[in-house]
Amino acid sequence: MADTTVVHLLRHGEVENPANVLYGRLPGYHLSETGRRMAETVAKAMAARDIVEVRSSPLERAIETATPLAEGFGLDVVLDDRLLEAGNVFEGHPMGEGRGVFRNVRNYRHLWNPFRPSWGERYLDVVDRMKAAIDAARGAARGHEAILVSHQLPIWIIRAAAEGRRLWHDPRQRQCGLASMTSLTFEGDRLISVGYSEPAGSLVRRPSVPGA
After folding, report:
1. pLDDT digits (tens, 9 = 90+) for 94-112
2. Given its phi and psi angles, is residue 179 left (phi above 0), alpha (psi -120 to 50 degrees) or beta?
3. For residues 7 and 145, what is the distance between their CA atoms, to the nearest angstrom?
4. Could you give the CA distance from residue 98 to residue 114 in angstroms, rounded to a whole number?
């Protein structure tokens, strides 16, 4: 029989972001106190699982989410640039109502093609790098389980690709909450199911910045 391997894609926890900016790949954005509690809650929820590999985006908020998990299983966090947030020209811009990027007509030149999208990294490129990261983790954890800590857009895009759905979408419709888990189950090299759970859902206090 083929080995069954599960790769869990974990979105990082809540970030300290009082200015409500799209932080994207910018450095210096760490988990809030609630975000740290989210990471600890997920670690406790996964404690009985067969986790043999923990990998993370190199951004601070992802590493801080991965650390309690890795410590619980006696593992090191393996950093993987392929799990990074998607590139976005609006990094550092405020996203709140009345001050958001859509209020400034100078930003419209970046909004001409939602299918690519024209304001950031191509969806197809995100799929390619996320698939490569998943395949590498699946190989390292074959017959067991791995956790990959990443970001909302990359997780949602690879899920859409895995389920055969279109990549362009309304960010408000993503099913990828803070500290949520999108789980891919493989038999051998074949994907057999996609699952979703929110082990720290009770700690989510407010909507987060889309794509964060």
Report:
1. 876 545 555 665 655 656 6
2. left
3. 6
4. 22
- Tell me the per-residue pLDDT of 124-152, one tens digit each, with 9 for 90 and over: 999 999 999 999 999 999 999 999 999 99
- Can you point out the beta strands (E) in the chain? 4-11, 51-56, 77-79, 145-150, 181-187, 190-197
Instruction: Give one DSSP letter per residue of 27-82, joined into a string.
Output: S---B-HHHHHHHHHHHHHTTTS-EEEEEE-SSHHHHHHHHHHHHHHT-PEEE-GG
Domain covering 4-203: architecture: 3-Layer(aba) Sandwich (3.40)
- The count of other CB atoms within 10 Å of the CB of residue 83 is 26
pTM of the complete model: 0.90
Cα distances (angstroms) measured from residue 70 to each of 21, 39, 167, 175, 181: 29, 11, 31, 25, 16
| Contact in structure between 207 and 22 (CB atoms under 8 Å) | no
- Per-domain residue ranges for the chain? 4-203
Q: What is the 3-state composition of the chain as percent helix, strand, coil, each rounded to the nearest 5? A: 35, 20, 45
- For the record, the structure tokens of 181 come out as 């888990």
Tally of CA atoms within 13 A in the half-sphere of 120 that contains its CB? 16
